[in-house]
Amino acid sequence: MLIIAAILIIAFFLPFLLYFGLALLVLFGIIVFADFLLLFSTQNGISAKRMTPEKLSNGDINTIQIDIKNHYKFPIEIDVVDEIPYIFEERLFAIKSKIEADKGWYYNYTLKPVQRGTYDFGAMHIFVKSPIKMLIRRYSMDESVSMPVYPSFMRMRDHSFTTDRHQNSQHGEHKIRRIGHSMEFEKIKEYVMGDDVRSLNWKATAKSNKLMVNQYQEERSQTFYCIIDTGRIMKMPFDDLTLLDYSINATIALSNVVLKRHDLMGLITFSRKVDHLTKASKRVKQLAYINESLYKLKTDFKESDFQRLYIEIKKNIPNRSTLFIFSNFETMDGMQRQLQVLQKLAKNHKVVVIMFQNSELNHYLDQSADTLTKIIYKTVAEKLLFEKKLIIQELQLHGIPTIFTEPQKLSSSVIQFYLQMKKMTY
How far is CA 208 from CA 192, 194, 200, in A? Predict the structure, then answer.
């Protein structure tokens, strides 16, 4: 186009170039028209589909796949612009590729959500060029979809696999089945000397013409509750996730392991009041109920009321249970205000307090203090860590075990604590 324009301008001074410039202009028009026919003569030159999972996993890498089929009889070049949720702030999202004639093409890209909720995907725009590359045709595919972002179910599966592998590798450990008198029926067997005559099954005896007794399996199921503090202290972020998100992910992972081992699992969330209580159970859909309860859980930026929590637990959990309390005490004074309530809970239940180690302080603890600024930072970091250790020591002196871990290692730490408890039970 620049050459044609230059020739036509020069033709004002050299008239013999006019016909040459016009010939080039006509040739240019023919090429553009040919490109138009190539791109627009086929009504649906391409087809495209965005392949997404049913739900996204919070804090994990989720894969989205784009499938495109070229229906043209010639190779094309494409630019794909996908309208991903605005929360990812991907303003330069574009994919370039080349597709051969009558061939398919797919591309995988990843997204890492850091907030739970609903994410909206928009349309998918594909810009197509023919081999002539004079025109571009845009295809807009209505691939709008709203996808829920759930607590990290990917890590839940990883922890479950690791736990099963760990369990199978424990050589020399044997579970002994004991015959008890719980309500969990096992089978009907023939009476032998020493069996409890109170377990005689008279209907089975009449049918078989032999003394038959009911045999029961000893009930070893334990009850566990995850109690999540949704107050303002749980809004503290680490690696794009808040302490509340880490607690939710750990709760899902722990619930999966507990239910697989046939224990009862329940959930409580609280701040100024108890917002939600799922009674402990080992029913098939219990994990789904817990997951749905945590799906849109958020902090309310208020001071948590442990006294109200104690009242609700006293009213709704009569049997002795293990309570995993996900909270965070940054100061000794903050812990002392709640210590009396924790002691009262520990009289009727086994209370385990989960506290978070500030992993951001490790940078200051490990660096050499060769300047005044670094000395101040390191001193403050050591003071904060020392106060955390004093809080843990104070809780343990009152018979309240504590899990102190980095947020990124919370799920594995809680599961390992649970497995150690179960190992001591048998």
Answer: 15, 20, 13
Query: Which two tokens mark 25?
Result: 């202009």
Distance (Å, rounded) from C-alpha 414 to C-alpha 424?
A: 16
Tally of CB atoms within 10 A around 128: 21
Mean pLDDT of all residues belonging to the chain: 86
Q: Is the pLDDT of residue 187 over 50?
A: yes
User: What's the rounded Cα separation, in Å, for the pair 385 and 342?
Assistant: 22
Provide the CA 148 distance to its chain's centre, in angstroms: 11
| CA dist., res. 327 & res. 8, Å (int) | 78
Q: What is the pLDDT of residues 298-351, one digit of tens each?
A: 888 888 899 999 999 999 998 899 999 999 888 888 899 999 999 999 999 999
CA distance 276 to 268: 6
Is the pLDDT at 171 greater than 70? The verdict is no
pLDDT tens readout for residues 4-16: 899 989 988 888 8
Q: What is the DSSP string of 196-216?
A: -GGGB-HHHHHHHTS-EEEEE
Spatial distance between the Cα atoms of 190 and 9, rounded to a whole number of angstroms: 111
